[in-house]
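Researcher: Checking consistency across runs. Here is Symplekin C-terminal domain-containing protein again:
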Amino acid sequence: MAHTPQTKNPTKQQNTMIDPLQLTAGLHANNPITDDDMFDSDDASAASAHGDADTTNEEESPLSAALDDLESRVVSALNEFKSHPGRASHGQSIHEELQSVLRPVVEVSAHIGPASARAVHASYPDVYGLEFCVDAVYTRINSELILPVLLESAQSEMIPAKRAASLRMFHVLYGEWSAPGSYLDGGAVTSSLGPYGTDQSPLVGLTEHERNRRIGMRSLRRSELLRRWVQASIPNLSPGTFTSSTLDLVAAGRGVLSASAALKPCLRYIAERIGEADDAGALRLFLPVMRMIEGVLGRLFLEGEGSDGGSEQENDALKSSCIKFLEIVVLCFSNKALPGMAGGGQVASRMKRDASQANDFSLEDLPPGHPIITRESLEEIGEYAFSTLRGLVVLGGQAKIDTNLLLDAAASASSTKDFMGGGTSPFQKILAIIKPAALTFQKIESDGEKASEDKDSFVLDRSLIKLDFYLSQKSYSLSINAIQMLATKRPLFFKEASTCLARRTMDPPGGLSGDAEGLLSKAAITGIRTHLRSSCLTLLRHIFSVTSGCWEILVKALNLSGMDAQAERALQASRQQLDLMKGGRAARTRAAIFYEWDQSTDLSRAEKRQRDTDDAEARVRAAKIARGLGAGVQLPKSMSDSCELVLLNLKHLPTKRPPIASSAQRKRPVTLDALVDAVMTNGASLSVDENHWYDRDGGDAWTIEEGELDNDGRQQLMYQCKKIETETFIKQSKVAASKAFSRVLLSTSSNRSEAATSLGSQLAARLAWMLQGVEPSSDIKDAHATALMSIGNGPMGSDVSVQFAKENPLVSSCIAHDMIPPQQKGELGSLSAASETSGLSTRVLNEAFVCSLSEEVEDLSRKKQYAQCLDLYVASVVNACANANAVPSDYEKKRIANSASSSLPHQLLISPSVTPSSLNLVGSLCDIEEVSKKAVKTSKQSIAESAAAHAAKTAAEKRATTALLVLRDVAFQRDRMRGSAIGCAVAIAAGRLPASLPIQDKALKLVMNVIFQKNSDCAGKVIESATRELELATQISIENHEKIVKANEVTSTKREKQGSSSKIQSIPQSEEERTVLESVKKPVVLFMALCVRRPEIIKVIMEMSCRDGADVMAKAVKANMPKLAKAASVKHGAASIALKVADMSSDRETPLLLSFLDNLAPATEKALPSQDLINACHEIQRNRSLGETKDSRYIIPVVSGMKRVELQDALPDFVRDSDETFKASLRRMSERLSRYAMIFRDEPDPNEPTLRGMSSCEQIVNLHRLDFNAVGLPQKRYLDAIRLCLEDDEVFNDRVIQAALDYISGKFLEGETLPLAYMRTIILTCSKHESLHSWICHVLLPRLVEGKVYSDKRQWEGWMRCAKMLENTGDQGVSSMEAIARLPPDQLKIYRTKYPR
């Protein structure tokens, strides 16, 4: 046997490894949960998700060779970069040179790496899975090599140019990774694009699990890149990065640029994480982003003018970058909405759309719900930042901040405490920097407004205002641009921005003389003044200047600047725009008339040219007809016209016949009759076949003789052929009949007369059934081929057969006649501009129905003709829709499909009867998954292709909705077919019949909200069909049980070797289990929705789920149990439904009953289980307990709502139960008391206890106080219960244990006796929690000595053992010697006797 290499099967590994993204238990929803449940860090998660991607044996494996080659390229480029001296040497700038050095790193990271992974998979598809290869390349090349090296260089490189190049690389990588075919390609979310390429095997479709995994991996990679990008920027923003002030300013400037580029991508990712309820994942990136913002603002406001010692140009470059960053902060931390502004709603909505297209970010994009990252906190930062920008514009620099405030801000900014370790929030440090700067300007602004008489202007004594730094021309212009941009992008700031610019325009830099001021020269002063005036004029032209009422101050400022005329025209334009927007139809019509007049001349010229062209074509056509040339010969409409045309063309005949070959014998002489025939038949008679006698001689080919009379008075006619054999005569008769039938059929779609069309349809329908065995002519053969194709491509379960179509070819041609494009219908059919669905199909079906009811018909096959014909019709409609889905750009096929599907409801409504097979065919219209995938796949192609694909998807969804409406109508209007129609709709909703997810949702709503609510009969049919679907799902689960068990064992073995295991029981353990779980999940969800309306059928789903081998079914039920419990409790009451379900459940169904009860209790901290539910759970416990032994599992769901005194009484029952039940009860007792975990609460009124639940501290205390002898508990079980709590250090941590021991010792001093296990617990705590050694030595042990612990022999023995353990711990300052020294002499002697030094 051939030896296979010892390599992991990557394809199987993908199917069995734990995916951090799983489906929520939604109604056919595909929203992935967060990755926080599986990983602690984004960086670690990206590596661990790829983790263990290396093969077990890499001896010369193709993947290892490819990885080595990629790694060698990257290492070579990085080595060259690291060894670069930092000076340009090839005539380029240093930055361009470093870019070219790092370009191979970018190519390998973003493009060559994924391409190599796809190539390895394509060459060895049976050995290496595609996702395995991509993960291995990403982990080794990017996660373990490129990103760490770039981060290290950006943080610690001593050459500023190389540090700047490293920072820029993160921005470049983010853009390149977002390109098609790379790791962050958007197409990778829902298709096989992105790093996985398009080489997915067409035989194995992309499963839902694989799509979710790719979404998760894309999110993790994006998080890793953004996190490292931010981490690389932060060190460059700290002062003192370089000892040289010049180099420090350069590095800070590059850091600010990097921060500016990273801010919006980071905020968009944070918003996505919050939207997916991943609060921890959002916070992990948010905290570094806040530190980055803090660093930039610190460089701007905490550094005085020239404090860095650099040149003026370098200081100004840094300040300009910081001001631009401040603009981005305001833009991101503000709202797009325009509250309370009349008349601006349309403009605001248009601005919002434009902003979204410009890749904007605002607070509306941040989902609510995060406990820390809130819109209010960010909005506060944005408002203060905007105030500082206004101050920079009005004052020409930053006003000097109060020294005390500045010192506090500097201390806060330099604090080493972070948000998780300290007590401050991430916003306070930023506010400590920016708030003093904003408040300083607001104070100056307020004083100036109070000192002025005019509200539009204010008086500033600039000689009294001291500035921390001045703005240069560049930074001043950036500040003005920032204010202007924020006014137009954020209408909320428009009024304040307009007032700010107008006031500065009225009090410009340089004063009245325009002399130099601060860092501004006289020429710079002139440029700034011009900039201010143009900004005011721009804002005045905006519609918000009128709606906000700030046009007055803008006009005043421009008038003072000598721009009266420009201000008047700008104001007129803004008012005209507002009037047009708010005006009615008449105003808009008047505005449109101008444009009609403006283009009227051009239209008249175009019309004249078109008329001249038409006249010229008409003259040429007339000349052709007169000469009898080419296509000019047309069939005249009357005999007189024919005669005139013949006589007209006689003079054009040549004098001699054209020469012909000697072998050719003309069988028909050229006579006037031949000429007339040629003209009348439009030339067809010249090429007629001599064997087709009906085309040549017509009725002269046979004779008719009259026969005898029949009994009914009919006279028989005898036909006799003259010139050909009888067999040939029969064949020719069929051909003649076929052509005659085709002419009749084609006339139904080309005749403009409704009466003629109706008559043609009647004739065609009757002839189609009479002319059995007659093959269709070439004119309608495409229709027959389409019918055969419809049968071949039709779904299973239909009675349509190829035999029926072959025996009745003309019938199938009639049925499919309207399903083919006009160009395939022959000349007559092509005359119709659009082929509408006629009554031809209806008449054919009626003929079939009449024939099947006729008593003269004895053949059973004839009885089935109607059903077969109806199925053929529906199959033709389905085939037409499939053809339209296959070619989205074919407009004609799309039109035919829409026409056929729209006429289907009416056709089935007027049909004499409907069959179950036809309904199944109707249901197949919902299978539009392929066209939905095509719409996604073409999203990266041209705009036209993408638009066509999305239009095709929309049309397909509309046709599928029509199919659901057909099923609804049949269920409501046809009693005999009600069960079949409802069964088909339920099968679509349950996922057994293929359909896309939106259509499945519509089917589910149709079944639950429409059909079920119609009447009791419909409701019963729905329940029957859902039960049938649930039974099928159960059988699938049982049939695959053994295969799933084996696959899970293999997966478990692999995970044990890898050192990982799954603690979540609801997650499928293998790909086989996942596949079966997906197939049974939707029937379970549907049936559970019915259980809410009919609680008595809960018994059915619980009984099926508890069958032998139906483990996957039970897992699906448990996964969706929260929705059932919540909906049932809302509709029927939690207590009532709990008792009802408990009465229906048998002992075998106890696990599902417990799951149901567990989900009935509220899951929020503020909502407690009602007393009725608590009483119901107690009643269930009494009814289902055996003898005197109580099963505490039934009251665990409501222990959080029980009074503490009741829990103290029930605590022995919990301790007596199993370890799992005991720990579950403790968790539920304290789940709503997390804030009181370290507190023993006192009852407000001991006579009337009101406290509910039991905190962790109270649990430890009550366990120690438990009198195990009185309640019949073994001492070993009592001590084991305490030990279990101490081992669970996630809940009972050192602080909880300390609080419990402290409380008991305090009560001991008050006179209570120490519990039996108290000293044992202290000794175990010493062994487990080293952090409590100091407290035990210096507080607890002396306290016990004070309470005379030595009076109890057992407790005294424990005290001495504990003191001995801590006497010589080796930690400085931690020793029990102090407590030992407090012992009385006798006890000290006893202690030293037993434990000498």
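Researcher: Does this match what you'd expect to see?
Model: One thing to look at in this run: The radius of gyration is 44 Å.
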